[in-house]
Amino acid sequence: MSREDLEHRFMVSELLNQSYGWTRDAGVAAPEESANLVSSRMRAESPSDDELHYILLDLDGIKAEIVPSSTPGNSHLYIYHAVTKEQLNRVVDVLTDIGLLQEGIRRGWRERGILCLRKPGVMKPIPPEAGALSEPSIAQ
Length: 140
Hints:
Strand order of the largest sheet: 2-1-3
Largest sheet: 3 strands, antiparallel
Helix content: 10-25%
Number of strands: 5
Number of helices: 3
C-alpha cells in the first residue's frame, strides 16, 4: 500500500474484548506508526462531512487478483469463486448501483449473459469516428 493510499485511509488501533468482539465503535483513530488496522471509514475533512467508506474485503480462502487494464489507471479484478447466474446478476446490480461498474457492463451482462475482460496487453479498438481505419491496412 503506497503512502498516498494510506493518507486517505482512516487508521485505527484495535480495541478487542476477551471474546474477540469490538469493545466500541470499531477502534479509535491512531497515527500510522501505531495503527494495526486500516478501516473502511474515510478520514473526514470536516466534522460535517458525510461518513463515507472504502470497500475493503477479507477474502479468506478465495483466490483473487487485480490486473492492470490496457487503459492507464484502470484495473480488472478476478475473483475465483463460482456463483450462479442469479447470484452474479445481484453482484452486477449492486456494483453498478454503487458506481463500481459502468452501466454498459450491466447492459452487456443482461444482453449476453456473460462478463468479459480484455486479456492483459490487448488494447481497445479505436472507433472509426476517432480517426482509425475501419479495416487494418497491410503494408506492401
